[in-house]
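We store amino acids, tokens; thus:
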Amino acid sequence: MRPRSSIDAMTHSPGMGSAFVVTAGFVTAGFVTAGFVVVGVLAGAGARWLLGRLRRGAQVRPPGCEVGVAAVWGATGAAWTAGLVPPAWLPVLLGLGWLAIAAAAVDLAHHRLPDVLTLPALPAALLLLVPLGAGAVARGVAGAGIAVAAHAALHLLAPGAMGAGDVKLAAPLGAVLAAVSWPALVLAAVLAALITGCVAIVGSCTRRLARGAAVPHGPSMLIAAWIVASGAAIAAAAG
């Protein structure tokens, strides 16, 4: 009888075999997550390059976009590898994460949301929703219209608090959130308002914001949408 090698002994021993499988799983997950991070750095660099070459240049200092997209994509990839995010949700979460970092960086630095980001984002969002099914895409179309109408009304009532860029941004975010569920659309709107309000209060108290100064609402909309969509994806995996 041939003597078993050390690897054979490990894989045929119940305890050692389980440990070997678990270790291999962690190593694989680490490599996959690292891959998402590396690709996220490249995607973030692409976002910064695109923004810097707009007709009305929107320069963003490095490595803000690179680090931001890498962090969001790395977290999303890690959650997917761990089984916390269903595969069908992965494209839309990655797309939403890229948009969140790129658009928030511009809005914070220049207090505007370029059309080159907001306008193509709607068809891109609907395309990324396709893996979730025809029903999700249909809700996305309706949700985009509802979100734009609601934000346009607020823009007309209080243009200082809600800019035209925010109205355009509402379309892709509304599409993704409505695809999640109709309550998600309302939840994200409330959460975005709370985030903007908290930033205004903290900025006023610390005197980083002048009294009455407008706070960009776009970053709050993006953060709220990503949180709600990610939570829905995790709930879908758990259910």
Q: What stands out?
A: DSSP finds nine helices and no strands in the chain.
